[in-house]
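Attaching the record inline, Q. Sequence:
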Amino acid sequence: MDISSLQFKQKSLRQTVIDALSFIGIKDFSDFDLKKEYFNNPERGIHDPRHLYRVMIATALIAQKLNEPRRGLLAFCGAFIHDQARNNNGSDPGHGPRASETKWNLHSAIWKKYELTPDEQDYVRSAVSLHCSRHDCGFKVDNLVKQILHDADSFDRCRSYHTEARLNWEYLSLPQLKDKSGHKLLNLLIGETEAVWCFTKDVASYISFKDLLENIR
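Structure, as predicted:
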């Protein structure tokens, strides 16, 4: 067969995202639908459900590339609640600890379905607490879970809706991304997460996770 006659089809971004979600063990997209009643501040803004969904996606993309499925799932769970307790879209340094305390039991059925152990629940809650605060959170810490969530949040750098916004890689926490040898991986993640933002920036705030994914091409 003449190799020039072969056609190679590039995987779509949507399929890349779905594959990453499958890699970390997401069983049903509807498990993670974000509803207005989950949020202290339900108004449309830079920290509304679209941002949380994009951070959830970024945790899966990062975890797949690091070959860390379970820690990726834990970071994903953290992304799901990390801004639910925000009281505004501006400075709110206590929103992480507040989310880990006040939103945790609200979603207990999810933690049970995904069989989070007591230690793993601590890892999620500490990652949520520490993504915006350096104070002792009172929970056991898994550094990799914390780093994945922190950096996934950072990748949604365009949530201010200023397209000239750029990621400052020096503020990332994963050594795999900060080291010069990891810049190829970093650039790949920047491209993927920026494309996800472009496809989802104008969708309705309170869209289902499945429907948001349908908007990604």
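The radius of gyration is 17 Å. The chain has one domain: 11-214.

More tomorrow.
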